């Protein structure tokens, strides 16, 4: 994500940096890995077809997602990680609710036609109906960022990281924003969180090395 140079006052930057510091702290569990979930109850044996008629239970989706994120942190190379990321994003998009999935699909279509007003209405509806779904918050953060509403974008990223501390796209967005407003220290922290979640992420090491020289090299 790249925007034109942002014209933000020093006070505004300090406020954004304070928000970012909180968000980075929210993502701290990423370093320790995801929390294990209990095995879900098996479908009733006397009705084997019921599992096919119902969407996966939330605990089933949570277990699958946690396993994929664990695999991402241990991926041997970028090719393997890319395939895992695709599966993770599919899990984030698959809410388990036909209504929410339809709204997410309509938002994706509105994005293709650059209908930002429609996107904002759709994402507002998604967040209202499913506030525990990180995908709605994340997409609205992207929309806020595109319209240069950084405070709103960070607030939405906060919701994403509370719901999913290992949300690599949200961590990258946060790091990018902090770098663009000149808060290299917070950008470095966010990129390091991202590295713990997704070690093979493209260009992550050069980003960290460059920011470390700027931030930690100044202390020498």
Question: What does this molecule look like?
Answer:
The chain has 220 residues and is mainly alpha-helical. It has a domain at 96-164: Serine Threonine Protein Phosphatase 5, Tetratricopeptide repeat, CATH 1.25.40. It has eleven helices and no strands. Helix 3 (58-73) runs antiparallel to helix 4 (78-93) and helix 8 runs antiparallel to helix 9 (168-180). The two termini are 32 Å apart. The model is unreliable at 1-8 and 29-53 (pLDDT under 50).
Structural key phrases:
0% strand; Serine Threonine Protein Phosphatase 5, Tetratricopeptide repeat; mainly alpha; globular; 11 helices
Outline the fold blueprint.
Layout lengths: L9 H17 L23 H4 L4 H16 L4 H16 L4 H15 L3 H14 L4 H13 L3 H14 L4 H13 L3 H14 L6 H12 L5
Helix pairs in contact: 1-8, 1-10, 3-4, 5-6, 6-7, 7-8, 8-9, 9-10, 10-11
What's this entry about, in short?
With 220 residues, the chain is an all-alpha fold. It has helices at 10-26, 50-53, 58-73, 78-93, 98-112, 116-129, 134-146, 150-163, 168-180, 184-197, 204-215. The chain has a domain at 96-164: Serine Threonine Protein Phosphatase 5, Tetratricopeptide repeat, CATH 1.25.40.10.
3D shape: globular
Order of helices and strands: HHHHHHHHHHH
**Regarding CATH, which class of one domain?**
Mainly Alpha
- Summed over residues and divided by their number, the pLDDT gives a mean of 81
Task: Specify the helix fraction band.
Answer: 55-70%
Which structural class best describes the helix and strand composition? mainly alpha
> CATH superfamily name of one domain?
Tetratricopeptide repeat domain
**N-C termini distance:** 32 Å
Named CATH architecture of one domain:
Alpha Horseshoe
Q: Total strand count, please?
A: 0
Characterize the biggest β-sheet: none
The number of helices is 11
Low-confidence runs (pLDDT<50, min 5 residues)?
1-8, 29-53
Strand content: under 5%
CATH topology category name of one domain? Serine Threonine Protein Phosphatase 5, Tetratricopeptide repeat
Over all CA atoms, what is the radius of gyration?
Answer: 19 Å
């Amino acid at each position: 994500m790249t925007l034109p140079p942002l014209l933000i006052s020093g006070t505004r930057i300090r406020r954004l940096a304070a928000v970012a510091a909180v968000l980075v702290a929210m993502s701290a569990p990423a370093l320790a890995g995801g929390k294990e979930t209990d095995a879900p109850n098996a479908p009733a044996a006397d009705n084997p077809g019921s599992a096919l008629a119902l969407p996966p239970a939330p605990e089933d989706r949570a277990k699958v997602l946690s396993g994929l994120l664990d695999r991402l942190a241990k991926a041997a190379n970028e090719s393997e990680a890319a395939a895992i990321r695709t599966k993770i994003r599919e899990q984030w998009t698959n809410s388990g609710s036909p209504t929410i999935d339809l709204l997410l699909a309509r938002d994706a279509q509105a994005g293709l036609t650059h209908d930002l007003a429609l996107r904002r209405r759709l994402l507002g509806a998604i967040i209202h109906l499913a506030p525990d779904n990180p995908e709605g918050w994340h997409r609205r953060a992207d929309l806020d960022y595109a319209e240069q509403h950084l405070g709103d974008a960070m607030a939405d990223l906060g919701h994403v990281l509370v719901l999913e501390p290992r949300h690599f796209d949200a961590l990258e967005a946060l790091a990018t924003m902090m770098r663009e407003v000149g808060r290299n220290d917070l950008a470095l922290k966010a990129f390091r969180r991202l590295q713990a979640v997704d070690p093979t992420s493209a260009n992550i090491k050069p980003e960290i090395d460059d920011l470390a020289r700027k931030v930690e090299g100044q202390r020498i």
